[in-house]
Specification:
The chain is mostly helical. The protein is globular. The longest helix is centred in the first third of the chain and has 43 residues.
């Protein structure tokens, strides 16, 4: 958790300064800034499966070490882009490469951290059972929730730090801070990775077939939970993409309020109720998550003032906090422990893809019914994702009933 919190704080520094550098220093358009920032998220999505594969084969700490190393190189690219600012095209290319490397860094490090945390929590529960004690209610679901919370916290903390650093010193020192601080995390994870190789049960570091077999295995078990997670995650995408525009349309200020309210709700939910997926089970938690998202988005749709809208956004963020832990837990239960990283990575990647497509498609509804129709449609899709999670519960129950008869 600490490694993820630190590294994502450094990544938050990078995300916040790039638009400022591209527009103010290089005098390029906002479109160029969007491309440079967007490639970070695309790279993160595309590297989800490879990051899970590294974690399964080499061990979670090895994956985290590789992610931090990618951030070191990405920070160096940012510093080089600052040095090359007189050559605009070259500077933009360097920024593009740096952003891609930072996206890969977040994906690989976070997936490794989640895989390792799930393994550690399962070992704790197993040891408690062997000792004749009741296993703790905090298990894999709590581990995924807490690591995810550290990702959001890090990005939130890094953004203002990056802006302050850029205003005082420029991009060069911001890139250098990212590189040097990430190097410390990389060395820490590298030292820990030696334990992965010595203890297979801790890191589950073993060869698991070839690359394509692992990909096919992961897709087979994760495609439906990942799709349902994506439907629930559309609510998050709508808040990011359209909440400030909704507030501007109604003349509600400040425009950053929906992001702050959403983030606070998510952090509080995961901090105090992170073990909810372990207590309720993945499928029930998925429906619980979708229910709060649906109610929240409907409230945003119907809100006549700033306060009701903010309450709706808070409920949406509270519900979304449990979406990925719930569907990741479902995915892990459908597969075997030797493919934890691959299953988590593919579930996350599919969710990212569905969320991205959903944001774009629902955006076109503004021409038909304004932002109210956009958020109402998001509420329907969130509920649909929750229903998909419940269907997995009944399908799993049916499989368990049939299994003894087949044996």
């Amino acid at each position: 958790m600490l490694a993820v919190l630190l590294e994502c704080t450094f990544l938050g520094v990078g995300i916040s300064v790039i638009p400022l550098f591209v527009v103010q220093t290089l005098h390029c358009s906002a479109g160029v800034s969007g491309i440079v920032v967007g490639v970070q998220f695309i790279a993160a999505m595309l590297s989800r499966f490879p990051s899970g594969r590294i974690s399964d084969v080499k061990g979670p700490y090895s994956a985290m070490s590789a992610g931090a190393l990618s951030a070191v190189i990405g920070g160096a690219f940012y510093a080089a882009a600052s040095i090359s600012q007189d050559y605009v095209f070259l500077s933009v290319v360097l920024l593009f490469c740096g952003s891609a490397l930072l996206g890969i860094a977040q994906s690989v490090l976070a997936t490794g951290a989640m895989t390792g945390s799930v393994s550690l929590m399962e070992q704790v529960q197993k040891a408690q059972k062997q000792a004749g004690k009741a296993p703790s209610s905090k298990g894999p679901g709590a581990a995924i929730s807490w690591v995810g919370m550290c990702i959001f916290l890090g990005l939130i903390l890094g953004a203002p730090m990056g802006v302050l650093l850029f205003e005082k010193t420029g991009l060069f020192w911001a890139g250098l801070v990212i590189a040097l601080c990430s190097a410390v995390v990389q060395l820490w994870c590298y030292q820990s990775s030696k334990a992965d190789l010595k203890n297979d049960s801790a890191g589950n570091a073993q060869e698991q077939g070839n690359f394509w077999e692992a990909l096919g295995y992961g897709l087979y078990h994760a495609w439906f939970p990942g799709f349902c997670f994506g439907l629930c995650a559309i609510s998050h995408g709508l808040i990011i993409a359209y909440a400030s525009l909704l507030y501007a349309e109604h003349h509600w200020f400040p425009l950053w309020l929906p992001y702050a309210v959403f983030g606070i709700a998510l952090v509080l939910a995961r901090l105090f109720l992170g073990s909810l997926p372990d207590r309720l089970g993945g499928a029930k938690t998925a429906f619980f998550s979708a229910f709060f998202e649906t109610v929240g988005l409907i409230l945003v749709t119907c809100a006549s003032n700033l306060y009701l809208s903010s309450i709706g956004i808070f409920l949406t963020g509270f519900g979304f906090a449990f979406a990925f832990p719930a569907f990741a837990l479902i995915t892990l239960q459908r597969g075997d422990s030797a493919h934890r990283g691959v299953l988590i990575g593919i579930c996350n990647a599919l969710g990212d893809g569905v969320r991205g497509v959903g944001i774009v498609c629902l955006g076109y509804l503004t021409a038909l019914g304004g932002f109210s129709l956009v958020f109402f449609s998001g509420a329907f899709l969130s509920l649909l994702g929750g229903v998909g999670g419940v269907s997995l519960f009944f399908l799993g129950k049916k499989a368990r009933i049939k299994k003894p008869a087949s044996e």
